[in-house]
């Protein structure tokens, strides 16, 4: 007699004929996914037959779940009717009147004089049809195809493919028996030989234990979203770009020479990548290569410019936007992760977040740049900000930006400047000047929330999460009111 795991034995007992695994799992009071390892074990041992069938099914979207709970617009609209003397009247002041009428039009419902008026018999007939449609949201499997197609057009349901698994015992249930599962055996088990009838459950010490659920939302995620709100409120448009970048956008387009120290291995993560690479347009490669050779006086390498790297700065995203839009008047920003092989310490990390932005327009000056930086800093709640002259290969003049941390003192959190002509002209920007900056959001969060170690921004400690979330809530409630004066 074959000894099997109890779960596999229960499947065989219940699947004398072909059965849907979902039905077997329901009888056992478990999820079908939890039985898959035993199904595969049964097939491997030849005691279970398995067949898979792919079918199309419909499931509720998030909007569909809301409508199932709160009601379809046309259902809520009709239910608000007032009936008297054989007439039923619905006011168009109903908050969902517009959507409801669009869905009721095919049933002949038309407004007149600010109301929908129907005789009571017609009203009851239409309401009955809508109620039936409402009931289908709780039982999609019974809904007619035309109703499902309508729901799909309205994005109330979506069509998905599901794999149904059917199982059938390949041996008589009488020829197998369940084993007793043990996590340990005793000396008595060994002496009596009972260990031969046991099924020993293995331990996998490589499996991570489940994480303790966070007691509060993560403060740093909410902070990043808040920065995004502030920038949009200041009239900026958000742009995004890839994390896996080519050196061209990360360095070359920013007039950083290919032998610049910042491009060495110790400052950049170079990637072995066999997948597709999106090459920059040919005219940009030629224009940027030409300005490198003329100004830096070396032989520029197209092959090096197409090397994949993990982006070291989100300026790679704003420079893409500049190349795409060219001359004009506009303001864009981006928020994203960047990667550098830094030594991990309280103020440095190998992976951190940057806020990058550019302002494009004719006649912009260094004074405009400082004013823009000051405006963003104040909107975020940094009341004391200092500027210090600096050098960057792609901006001139340039500054470093500092703010005062409650414990660490004055901390540098970003750089800024006006893009040099060597950056803008190869990209087709000749009439406008470009103000540019890149700020480290991790350090800004440390400054504003009084955190003195960058690693704490990613803590999983429940008590620290509570403490930092309380600081975030206090900051948000205070700064949110003062920041309004800096938004459009």
- Strand order, biggest sheet? 11-14-15-19-18-17-16
Helical amount among residues, as a percent range?
Answer: 25-40%
Please report the distance between the alpha carbons of the first and last residues: 79 Å
Mean pLDDT: 90
Number of strands: 19
Low-confidence blocks of residues? 481-488
The general outline is: extended
State Rg.
33 Å
What structural category characterises the helix and strand content?
Answer: alpha+beta
Q: Indicate the proportion of strand residues.
A: 15-25%
Count the helices. How many? 18
Task: Profile the largest sheet.
Answer: 7 strands, mixed
Describe this structure in words.
The protein has 488 residues and is an alpha+beta fold. Helix content is 37%, strand content 25%. The chain contains 18 helices and 19 strands. The strands form six sheets. Strands 11-14-15-19-18-17-16 form a seven-stranded mixed β-sheet, sandwiched between helices. The protein has a three-stranded antiparallel β-sheet with strand order 2-7-3. Helix 9 (187-192) links the parallel strand 9 (180-182) and strand 10 (198-200). The longest helix is centred in the C-terminal third of the chain and has 22 residues, at 462-483. The protein is extended. The model is unreliable at 481-488 (pLDDT under 50).
């Amino acid at each position: 007699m074959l000894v099997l795991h109890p779960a596999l034995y229960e499947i065989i007992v219940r699947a004398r004929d072909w059965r849907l695994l979902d039905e077997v799992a329901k009888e056992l009071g478990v999820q079908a996914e939890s039985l898959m390892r035993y199904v595969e074990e049964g097939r491997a041992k030849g005691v279970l037959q398995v067949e898979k069938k792919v079918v199309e099914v419909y499931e509720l979207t998030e909007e569909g779940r809301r409508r199932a709970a709160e009601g379809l617009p046309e259902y809520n609209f009709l239910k608000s009717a007032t009936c008297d003397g054989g007439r039923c009247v619905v006011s168009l002041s109903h908050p969902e009147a517009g959507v409801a009428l669009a869905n009721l039009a095919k049933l002949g419902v038309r407004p007149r004089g600010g109301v929908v008026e129907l005789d009571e018999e017609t009203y009851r007939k239409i309401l009955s049809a809508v109620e039936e449609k409402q009931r289908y949201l709780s039982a999609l499997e019974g809904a007619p195809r035309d109703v499902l197609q309508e729901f799909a057009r309205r994005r109330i349901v979506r069509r998905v493919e599901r794999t149904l698994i059917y199982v059938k015992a390949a041996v008589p249930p009488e020829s197998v028996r369940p084993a007793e599962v043990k996590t340990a055996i005793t000396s008595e088990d060994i002496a009596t030989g009972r260990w031969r009838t046991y099924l020993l459950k293995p331990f996998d010490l490589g499996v991570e234990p489940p994480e303790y659920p966070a007691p509060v939302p993560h403060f740093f995620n909410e902070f990043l979203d808040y920065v995004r709100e502030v920038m949009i409120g200041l009239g900026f448009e958000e742009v995004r770009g890839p994390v896996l970048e080519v050196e061209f956008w990360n360095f070359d387009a920013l007039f950083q020479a290919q032998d610049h120290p910042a491009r060495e291995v110790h400052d950049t993560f170079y990637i072995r990548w066999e997948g597709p690479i999106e090459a920059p347009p040919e005219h940009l490669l030629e224009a940027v290569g030409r300005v490198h050779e003329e100004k830096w006086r070396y032989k520029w390498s197209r092959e090096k410019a197409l090397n994949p790297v993990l982006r070291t700065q989100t300026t790679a995203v704003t420079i893409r936007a500049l190349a795409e839009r060219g001359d004009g008047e506009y303001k864009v920003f981006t928020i994203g992760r960047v990667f550098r092989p830094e030594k991990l310490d309280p103020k440095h990390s190998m992976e951190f977040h940057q806020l990058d932005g550019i302002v494009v327009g004719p006649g912009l000056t260094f004074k405009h740049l400082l004013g823009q930086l000051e405006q963003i800093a104040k909107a975020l709640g940094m009341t004391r900000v200092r500027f210090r002259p600096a050098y960057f290969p792609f901006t001139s003049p340039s500054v470093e930006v500092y703010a005062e941390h409650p414990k660490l003192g004055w901390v540098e959190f970003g750089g800024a400047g006006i893009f040099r002509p060597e950056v803008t002209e190869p990209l087709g920007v000749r009439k406008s000047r470009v103000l540019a900056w890149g700020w480290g959001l991790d350090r800004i969060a440390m400054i504003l929330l009084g955190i003195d170690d960058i690693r704490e921004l990613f803590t999983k400690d429940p008590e620290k999460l509570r403490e930092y979330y309380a600081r975030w809530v206090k900051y948000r409630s205070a700064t949110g009111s003062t920041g309004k004066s800096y938004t459009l």
